[in-house]
Design goal:
- The chain has 12 helices and 8 strands.
- With about 290 residues, it is of the alpha+beta class.
- It folds into 2 domains: about 170 residues, Regulatory protein AraC (Jelly Rolls, Sandwich); about 100 residues, Arc Repressor Mutant, subunit A.
- Strands 1, 2, 3, 4, 5, 6, 7 and 8 form an 8-stranded mixed beta sheet that branches.
- Helix 7 packs across helix 8.
Length: about 290
């Protein structure tokens, strides 16, 4: 493990630096960027479709088996690593945060897609057989378009990518809670966005409920109904996730991490971390 945890921006691994996007078949990408198999972060969005291969890939410390016709999505800031077995191939698209902003009037349009909410279990999707040909066609069309350098070519790439996003989003429609009002689901998404932004300084459900203009009981009921967990646990899990991300960087001391997460002192942070993970921060580092 390196002292400085690697964080990659789109320019360090893209041949299209001025356009904020990288499009490639996966096998040559992996061959060119073998160091990306080690734990690292991205400052950009990351989408991979596997068409062949095996092994594991880990997103935010949760490991998944690699399977053909599995697609996964990552948002900026997530921790990621690979451990492949044998040959692996597919497609990869990396794109920057502002890539779609000049293309769409609604700059937060990607927030509509659950797989871009930063929640690990939403980001890994197995594509059903009936969609294999359509998904492959779209990825091939994106690759082809990126090689032609025609007028409005990047706009065509964006339009094709949006087709993929919409097709994948439709797969999750059946999984949405039928009895939950759209209003409550919107509140939950807003709560999750707020926890991603304010987890360091807001630690109590009542703080988030106030920002959402609802009562703490209402917020807790929404989380229990849709997620099966309490609002307090959602906040704690986000704090623990960030603590794990920071602990990978060995040149940050536990005291510095506790300070970054607004704990009163490192001993309180250590007790908190061990209570919910079963490991002290130092022991967690030894597992990496």
């Amino acid at each position: 493990m390196k002292e400085q945890f690697p964080v990659y921006d789109i320019c360090t691994i893209s041949d299209f630096k001025q356009e904020d996007i990288l499009i490639s078949r996966f096998a040559p990408y992996l061959q060119s960027h073998k160091n990306l198999a080690l734990p690292h972060k991205h400052t950009f969005y990351h989408m991979v479709l596997f068409t062949e291969g095996a092994g594991t890939h880990a997103v935010d410390f949760t490991s998944f088996a690699v399977k053909p016709y599995q697609i996964y999505f990552m948002v900026p800031g997530q921790v990621h690593s690979w451990a492949f077995e044998g040959a692996v191939d597919g497609y990869i698209i990396n794109f920057s945060v502002p890539f779609f902003q000049s293309f769409l009037l609604k700059q937060d349009y990607l927030d509509n897609f659950q797989f871009f909410d930063g929640t690990t279990n939403h980001a890994i999707i197995n594509i059903p057989t009936e969609l294999h040909r359509q998904i492959i066609y779209l990825f091939e069309a994106i690759l082809h378009e990126s090689e032609l350098n025609l007028k409005l070519g990047l706009d065509m790439v964006k339009a094709l990518m949006l087709q993929i996003f919409i097709l994948i989003a439709r797969l999750n429609t059946a999984d949405a809670p039928k009895s939950t009002a759209n209003y409550n689901y919107t509140l939950l998404r807003n709560f999750q966005k707020l926890t991603n932004q304010r987890f360091a300084d807001l630690k109590l459900p009542k703080d988030y409920a106030e920002l959402l203009y609802i009562t703490p009981n209402h917020l807790n009921a929404i989380c229990k109904d849709i997620l099966g967990t309490s609002a307090g646990e959602v906040i704690r899990n986000r704090v623990i996730l960030e603590a794990k991300r920071l602990l990978i960087t060995l040149n940050l001391s536990v005291t510095q991490i506790a300070y970054n997460l607004n704990f009163t002192d490192s001993s309180y942070f250590t007790k908190f971390f061990k209570k919910y993970t079963g490991l002290t921060p130092e022991d967690f580092r030894k597992t990496l």
